[in-house]
């Protein structure tokens, strides 16, 4: 990494000028998207929780200082992992989101300050939070109707979980019936976990019976809850803490703490260490007290969770794409160990990224045996001067691949040579290059294979992505089947999946002749493929695997363009350099220059257009149907401009989106309404020229409140 670039990455946000902030914003966004890709879609994370959240925190700080840079294509990501096909899928009525993380006392103070700013509270206005241990277990959603437990589901990917109802009924801490005063319909949420003593006893029994043992209490709890035989679950010592809720028609209490107290009244076990705090200092004191008692709790925790106590404040604060604004997890420091780096392996991902992975002499870190660690990228290898044979310190924070923290050079072998990062793809031999940002002139931190679809590593990973749960979700066609079909030449492109049955009928060597494929499994596979010949537009767009277009961005694009024909026409113009098409695209709230450039590049490639055209011969993307929201602005496009004095811009946007409106960053003929506060300039003038409906802040608040 050039020293100038490294200096800017270390430079305090307050010292960045506008140009530096924009470049740093683009760099961070690209790096975080790469981590999202590897963690959520490739199942190959290369960064710790601590490093990942440090990147997001710096990005947030830049966006706070330079609001014009805010777009939702700067880190938006899904939650958790796709549910297993072994269990029935359960669609969550209210998504089960993850939490943003804090790693220092300063982070906690910043969190409290952000809450006060968003709510426009003065330093003297009372603001209370709850603080409770963050249980290292498995999230569970319990749905009760007329007092009876009817469905229990894991978090899954946050939107869809696994039905484990019969298993949940075996856990003593989970009531199967609620009192008569409970709401007719309510979802209680919490964490399934296992105590240290029960974990040790279970592992002793497992070792005596079949020699298998669990790595840690969390894995034991997750594996026990997700048993196909509920009798096995019943034999395992699982416990449950209740701390939250999902769908409920009307909240019977006004605060988070009172709701948790009500759960206890209903027979749930709640964490006795939960307390109400009135300041950042109180929260930090609670954190350190819980941290000091961590070893004596008898169960694993990895931090402390803070939540705004008042529920009306929670509603006002709302959510960002991946987490609530009103809560944060203050994580404990990562655990470290020392071992030897035996080799550096270069892995090639779906987007062609060459990722260096350290192959280690196995070592136990935080109760888990670690043999791989991330080295991030070639700049990081150079900066730390990591060499094969080095003794290194590895760190683990959360359930992701650990990272190499530092090299103990005093133990370095005399013959250890500096590592030379390859400039050719280790899979296909194509050139591996670092893209240069045309606007900043800076190199991307990631080196990528230029082989595209000719690179087997990319082609297979793209196909895996295509059939993944958030994309086409074809039952019976998972990663193993894709790898086998690709290796045998049966499936090379997405369209090949949908011609597989017709080609199988014509071939002398048929699927039935392959090991593991019988008449029933073949019939089911072809039926599953046929069931996906019509697919939601957002899923189709996500499945294409365009760089920087995750499922959230695909959803935004689908809702904005409405149909494949409209989207394709716009992208064709975009790839041809049409400025109006680009303007319309980046005007969509949540879509920025990075996504626009990725889409333009994708649709400018003839082989990509041909692959899509071939696919469209087999499948039909459905027009996007907007969600039904009973409000006067549902389906309308709104622009906020000027200074809002009675609510923050974030709160106004969140309220508009909750009412079913689309929020845009620029005014055009497609804009339906503009909300103009004091200081509104060119956007207000353009709206007047176009004859658009213009509201002041009071009129907007009245409209939002249904007046």
Write the layout of secondary structure elements.
Layout: H1 3-10, H2 18-41, H3 49-65, E1 89-91, E2 101-102, H4 105-119, E3 129-135, E4 138-145, E5 148-154, E6 160-162, H5 165-168, E7 185-193, H6 196-209, H7 217-225, H8 230-234, E8 239-245, H9 256-265, E9 275-277, H10 280-292, E10 301-308, H11 311-317, E11 327-331, E12 335-348, E13 354-365, E14 368-374, H12 378-384, E15 391-396, E16 403-407, E17 432-436, E18 443-449, H13 456-466, H14 479-487, H15 494-498, H16 500-506, H17 519-530, E19 534-536, H18 537-543, H19 551-561, H20 564-575, H21 579-586, H22 593-604, H23 606-616, E20 620-622, E21 637-641, H24 649-658, E22 662-664, E23 673-676, H25 682-690, E24 693-695, H26 697-704
Parallel strand pairs: 2-11, 19-20, 21-22, 21-23, 23-24
Antiparallel strand pairs: 1-6, 3-9, 3-10, 4-5, 4-7, 7-8, 10-11, 12-13, 12-15, 13-14, 15-16, 17-18
Helix pairs in contact: 2-3, 4-10, 18-19, 20-21, 20-22
Descriptive labels:
707 residues; five-stranded mixed beta sheet; D-amino Acid Aminotransferase, Chain A, domain 1; 4 domains
Mean pLDDT: 84
CATH class of the largest domain: Alpha Beta
The fraction of residues in strands falls at 15-25%
Q: How far apart lie the N and C ends?
A: 57 Å
Q: Please state the second-level CATH architecture of the largest domain.
A: 2-Layer Sandwich
